[in-house]
Specification:
Elements (H helix, E strand, L loop, with lengths): L1 H9 L8 H7 L4 E5 L4 E3 L4 E2 L1 E15 L5 E7 L4 E3 L8 E2 L3 E14 H10 L1 H27 L2 H13 L12 E3 L3 H8 L3 H13 L3 E3 L4 E3 L2 H8 L10
């Protein structure tokens, strides 16, 4: 239980819940570690658990009727996924969750988490704030799909994904996003060849580095300058 205590204490989403209270209302909660490319659950599988990312990155994706996969998001520390909170009964997953790299997650039964929220309003407020951020994120993405060019959509998506990564990656860049070019293209709403062409230009400009399996952003400031969110540095004469 010591590891559970340490991990719960480090989870910002549960920071307002004293450990004894958390254990009282969520007695079956446990920590699960996953190796690279592990499947946490598959689309169509019946779920009764809610998951919280403690370390690593989780890809969520949906399958079409013909079996084609479409990536819908990349989740990082403190983010919830799995069965919906509003339905304590067993739920059929509408998406699949796969580990990118390696990851550690907190697994909680939905009915227990609902009980925790009823007794700890501060935790409920944090959950509402997270869901509100996701709503705004989806609204921005829809706006980009409607009005922005592919390059702008890609840059905005990279900026969005970089928000949760604070530590420098192993390649010396600022953020390490473990998505393939196809998965990134899914999020952008473009084809892989088009995204690959743009990524290649950004790499030549020194903004990022990438392979087929990940993208490393050198600095979020460069992304923000491309979006016009911060002024370009003055030219030195």
């Amino acid at each position: 239980m010591t590891n559970l205590a340490n991990d719960v204490a480090m989870c910002t989403l549960l920071a307002e819940a004293p450990l004894p209270v958390f254990q009282q209302h969520c007695p079956s909660a446990d920590i699960e570690s996953f190796a690279q490319d592990s499947v946490i659950y598959q689309q169509g599988q019946r779920l009764e658990y809610l998951y919280c990312v403690l370390d690593g990155q989780i890809k969520v994706a949906r399958l079409s009727r013909d079996g084609a996969e479409f990536t819908t998001g990349l989740l990082t520390n403190g983010e919830l996924f799995g069965a919906p909170i509003h339905d304590p009964a067993a739920f059929q997953a509408v998406e699949s969750a796969t580990v990118k790299g390696a990851a550690k997650v907190l697994r909680i039964r939905v009915n227990e988490f609902r009980t925790l929220l009823l007794h700890q309003p501060a935790v409920g407020l944090r959950v509402v704030e997270q869901l509100d951020r996701r709503r705004l994120q989806m609204e921005r993405r829809l706006e980009c799909f409607a009005f922005a060019r592919t390059e702008s959509r890609l840059v905005e998506t990279l900026r969005e994904l970089s928000g949760g990564f604070e530590a420098r990656c192993e390649h010396g860049f600022g953020q390490h996003i473990q998505l393939s070019q196809q998965e990134l293209a899914d999020l952008v709403g473009a084809t892989r060849p088009v995204v690959s062409t743009i990524l290649n230009r950004l790499r030549k400009e020194g903004v990022l580095g990438y392979t087929r399996e990940y993208v490393c952003i050198r600095g979020i400031e460069a992304i923000e300058q491309m979006l016009g969110l911060v002024p370009h540095p003055p030219t030195v004469r």
